[in-house]
């Protein structure tokens, strides 16, 4: 829906491809596009102003002595600036010398505190700690129940007592001490930053348990209000870090930049899915390209990992590069791919995909028709399309409700595609003549050179 | 990367189905990607702990702290100075634009509502900053007056009306249903709650609390069960007991999750097939939501034919301006507004109040 920054800049920079350096005038135009891109990504207006000024300083007079054209150069400047703004100081968990280490979770209603509390507990467990959860959200019906269910799933004890949340938190701390748990995570009720009474309550909870870390839970879909919320919670609780949730959605997530900029505190964790292990450390570089709508290859591959059976995907890619790919493999991969959404959507998320390719129309009914044609083939025909003669063609077209020409086209394209992929595979694998001896550490048939090429595109992990 | 450019040319040139090429490319990229990422995972596992513990305070961080105090003061207030001046300057426009952007109305929509006013100012039909501001508010309010905001209830149906409530995680669906239930009960209607959120832990318990509070029936399914069957059972029981209204809760889901959106489309189909009729599909949107709200409205409409928006948590500091874009660009009316935690805090949407609040 929203244009990517590179598409936006494409229009502005078309005329200056051959010029050596960006003039003041160019920069102003370019920065207007950068501003729009950031605003569409929900970066706060004031923060956008700051970012644009920082970029202006670097962009004026930037020379294209390198291999980059001015457009690429601007994108690089913007991207680098965002990465450095999002990154910086990383959070180091210093465990309390007198356990337990107490972590307080706070945030607006529906930002994902309860789920994040459980995920964080699971993370501590994976670090070899013995966490315990306290349900101090006595406001929302069944919030404690939710925490208990999650705790059961993770095999992590959950403490709560009805009545007063401040007292519950205090009792929870005592319980953790008596049980010898070394990390205590306190889940609190969602509250509006402007609700003084509720903000006082969370302050009282904080006083009662004296947390070593206070995390603000922020929904990645949050708009301009993120800064107001972050400031209010920081003023009340003094935030140590941010947990960014719902990153598996398609929001650009500019709130991350706003909050980081305003608080100056690290974004410690990112929640990336509904499952309890979908919780990881925050990657500033991925977030930067996401905010700019530049595609996010790693996220895409991670998504692919979820829907594809790993071995099959690897096998298919290897077969394809060796030219041994069959229509049956093709069908299987197509069906897996469909689980990730429309082909067009996937292409749109790929960084570095040329515009002509992104604009290629791939209607869903064409996907269905292709499937129907292959479904109407016998197993032998799928393995060896050369078998398909006139009468087989007619049968297939009748069976799939398409025309003979459609069948022809598919077979022809498949053959061409196979040839092309084989060339590609052959080219990159040239360094190792013996071919299959070039297998990776796990016996994968993917040429190391290709893997390395992609790996370098993906940037640092 | 690789042969991407060759591919691109072929795809652009070829008029026949491009799907082969695109697929071939995706298969190979993902195949290689999976290998690369698993190799990296192995390598990264060892590094991870050391990365967490690398604590650096660089000079940059000091400047970040310096900046905070500066930013803090500049976040306050919306339109003020420029409107009190005697003539319309660039600053007037900037302030109006900024007010709308800060309210999450969005860049495109903001430009769209300001454009006709620029004409009026150019032709000297508006000269005072204050007149400009009120003209803008009037125009925006007028754009919101096209749609009916009544909740659709067909009493001649002879079968239960079904209101389906959908939205992303944490938007406030279950709470909205609780409040709706109480209000509809107060109108004298009998209500059944169908606990279609079988995914989130204890969502059923949460809804059950609301059923008790509001005097509604409830149908629950097994945790992790098929939401469609819960809704179907709910409608069947409502029909048998001659209950007027079924409020169907659904699990929160992100709109780019294809499988879950298909599950939701199925819920809608099944609800339609049951003995009642779906007369309202309410999309719940949190007022803090930014530009992603527009995508949410598009995707949820596509799978469930949304008939109205419920804007929740408007009692906070967020203005919820994205729903202005949703209603004026997608034609989905905002029907209800959530202003707090008590039952009476769910109220009918008022366009004039909403618009004027965007500027405060």
List the helices and strands and how they pair.
The complex is a heterodimer of chains A (461) and B (360).
Chain A: H1 5-13, H2 24-40, H3 45-59, H4 70-86, E1 101-107, H5 113-126, E2 131-136, H6 143-154, E3 158-159, H7 165-179, E4 183-188, H8 196-209, E5 213-219, H9 226-237, E6 241-245, H10 254-263, E7 267-271, E8 279-281, H11 284-291, H12 297-307, H13 310-322, H14 327-338, H15 343-349, H16 355-359, H17 364-375, H18 379-383, H19 390-400, H20 404-428, H21 448-458
Parallel strand pairs in A: 1-4, 1-5, 2-3, 2-4, 5-6, 6-7
Antiparallel strand pairs in A: 7-8
Helix pairs in contact in A: 1-2, 1-4, 2-3, 3-4, 4-11, 5-6, 7-8, 9-10, 13-20, 14-17, 17-19, 19-20
Chain B: H1 4-13, H2 19-52, H3 59-74, H4 90-102, H5 107-122, H6 129-143, E1 161-167, H7 173-186, E2 191-196, H8 203-214, E3 217-220, H9 227-240, E4 245-250, H10 258-273, E5 277-286, H11 292-304, E6 308-312, H12 322-330, E7 334-338, E8 346-348, H13 351-358
Parallel strand pairs in B: 1-4, 1-5, 2-3, 2-4, 5-6, 6-7
Antiparallel strand pairs in B: 7-8
Question: In words, what does this structure look like?
Answer:
The complex is a heterodimer of chains A (461) and B (360). Chain A is globular, with a radius of gyration of 27 Å. Chain A has three domains: 82 residues, Four Helix Bundle (Hemerythrin (Met), subunit A) (Up-down Bundle), CATH 1.20.120; 194 residues, Rossmann fold (3-Layer(aba) Sandwich); 149 residues, Signal recognition particle, SRP54 subunit, M-domain (434 Repressor (Amino-terminal Domain)), CATH 1.10.260.30. Chain A is 55% helix and 9% strand. In chain A, α4 packs across α11. Chain A has 21 helices and eight strands. Chain A starts with a helix and ends with a helix. Chain A has an eight-stranded mixed β-sheet with strand order 3-2-4-1-5-6-7-8, sandwiched between helices. Chain B folds into three domains: 31 residues; 58 residues, Up-down Bundle (Four Helix Bundle (Hemerythrin (Met), subunit A)); 198 residues, P-loop containing nucleotide triphosphate hydrolases (Rossmann fold), CATH 3.40.50.300. Chain B has an eight-stranded mixed β-sheet, sandwiched between helices. In chain B, β6, α12 and β7 form a beta-alpha-beta unit. In chain B, α6 crosses α13, α7 runs parallel beside α8 and α9 runs parallel beside α10. Chain B starts with a helix and ends with a helix. Classes of the chains: A alpha/beta (461), B alpha/beta (360). The interface between A and B is large, with 127 and 107 residues.
């Amino acid at each position: 829906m929203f244009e990517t920054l590179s598409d936006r800049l494409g229009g502005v920079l078309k005329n200056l491809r051959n010029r050596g350096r960006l003039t003041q005038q160019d920069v102003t135009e370019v920065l207007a596009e950068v501003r729009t891109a950031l605003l569409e990504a929900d970066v706060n207006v004031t923060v956008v102003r700051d970012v644009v000024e920082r970029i202006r300083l670097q962009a004026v007079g930037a020379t294209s002595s390198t291999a980059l054209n001015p457009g690429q150069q601007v994108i690089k400047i913007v991207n680098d600036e965002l990465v450095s703004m999002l990154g910086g100081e990383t959070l180091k968990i210093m465990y309390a010398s007198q356990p337990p280490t107490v972590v307080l979770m706070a945030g607006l209603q529906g930002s994902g505190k309860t789920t994040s509390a459980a995920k964080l507990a699971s993370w501590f467990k994976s670090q070899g700690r013995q966490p315990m959860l306290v349900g101090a959200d006595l406001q929302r019906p069944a919030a404690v129940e939710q925490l208990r269910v999650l705790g059961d799933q993770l095999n992590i004890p959950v403490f709560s007592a009805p009545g007063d949340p401040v007292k519950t938190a205090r009792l929870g701390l005592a319980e953790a001490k008596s049980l010898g748990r070394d990390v205590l995570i306190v889940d609190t009720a969602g509250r509006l930053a402007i609700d003084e009474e509720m903000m006082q309550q969370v302050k009282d909870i904080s006083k009662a348990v004296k947390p070593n870390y206070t995390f603000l839970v922020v929904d990645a879909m949050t708009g301009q209000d993120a800064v107001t919320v972050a400031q209010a919670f920081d003023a009340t609780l003094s935030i140590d870090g941010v947990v960014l949730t719902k990153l598996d959605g398609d929001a650009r997530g500019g709130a991350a930049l706003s909050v980081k900029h305003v608080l100056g505190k690290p974004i410690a964790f990112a929640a990336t899915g509904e499952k309890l292990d979908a919780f990881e450390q925050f990657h500033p570089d991925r977030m930067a390209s996401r905010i700019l709508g530049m595609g996010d290859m790693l996220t895409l591959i991670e998504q692919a990992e979820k829907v594809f059976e790993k071995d099959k995907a690897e096998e298919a890619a290897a077969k394809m590069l060796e030219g041994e790919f069959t229509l049956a493999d093709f069908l299987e991969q197509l069906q897996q791919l469909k689980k990730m959404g429309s082909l067009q959507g996937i292409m749109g998320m790929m960084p570095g995909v040329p515009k002509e390719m992104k604009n290629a129309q791939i209607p869903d009914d064409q996907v269905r028709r292709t499937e129907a044609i292959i479904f109407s083939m016998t197993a032998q025909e799928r393995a060896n399309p050369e078998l398909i003669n006139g009468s087989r063609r007619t049968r297939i077209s009748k069976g799939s409700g398409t025309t003979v020409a459609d069948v022809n086209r598919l077979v022809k394209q498949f053959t061409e595609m196979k040839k092309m992929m084989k060339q590609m595979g052959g080219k990159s694998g040239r360094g190792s003549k013996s071919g299959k001896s070039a297998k990776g550490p796990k016996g994968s048939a993917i040429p190391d050179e290709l893997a390395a090429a992609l790996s370098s595109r993906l940037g640092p992990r | 990367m690789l042969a991407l450019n060759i591919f691109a040319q072929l795809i652009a040139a070829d008029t026949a189905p491009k799907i082969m090429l695109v697929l071939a490319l995706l298969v190979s990229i993902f195949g290689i990607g999976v290998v690369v990422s698993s190799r990296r995972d192995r390598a990264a596992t060892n590094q991870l702990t050391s990365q967490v513990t690398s604590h650096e305070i660089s000079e940059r961080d000091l400047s970040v702290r310096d900046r905070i105090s500066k930013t803090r003061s500049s976040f306050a207030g919306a339109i003020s100075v420029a409107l009190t001046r005697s003539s319309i300057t660039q600053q007037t426009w900037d302030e109006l634009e900024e007010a709308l952007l800060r309210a999450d109305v969005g860049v495109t929509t903001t430009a769209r509502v300001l454009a006709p006013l620029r004409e009026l100012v150019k032709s000297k039909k508006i000269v005072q900053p204050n007149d400009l501001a009120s003209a803008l508010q009037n125009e925006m309010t007028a754009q919101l007056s096209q749609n009916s905001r009544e909740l659709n209830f067909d009493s001649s149906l002879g079968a239960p009306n079904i209101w389906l409530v959908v939205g992303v995680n944490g938007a406030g669906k279950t709470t909205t249903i609780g409040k709706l239930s109480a209000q509809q009960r107060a109108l004298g209607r009998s209500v059944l709650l169908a606990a279609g959120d079988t995914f989130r832990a204890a969502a059923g318990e949460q809804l059950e609390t609301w059923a008790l509070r509001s005097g509604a029936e409830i149908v629950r399914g097994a945790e992790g069960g098929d939401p469609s069957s819960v809704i179907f059972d709910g409608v069947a029981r409502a029909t048998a007991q001659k209950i007027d209204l079924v409020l169907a809760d659904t699990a929160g889901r992100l709109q780019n999750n294809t499988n879950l959106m298909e599950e939701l489309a199925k819920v809608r189909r099944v609800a339609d097939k049951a003995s009642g009729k779906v007369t309202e599909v309410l999309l719940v949107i949190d007022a803090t939501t930014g530009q992603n709200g527009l995508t949410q409205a598009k995707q949820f409409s596509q799978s469930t034919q949304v008939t109205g928006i419920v804007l929740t948590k408007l009692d906070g500091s967020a203005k919820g301006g994205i729903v202005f874009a949703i209603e004026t660009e997608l034609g989905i009316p905002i029907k209800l507004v959530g202003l707090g935690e008590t039952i009476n805090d769910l109220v009918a949407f008022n366009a004039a109040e909403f618009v004027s609040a965007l500027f405060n």
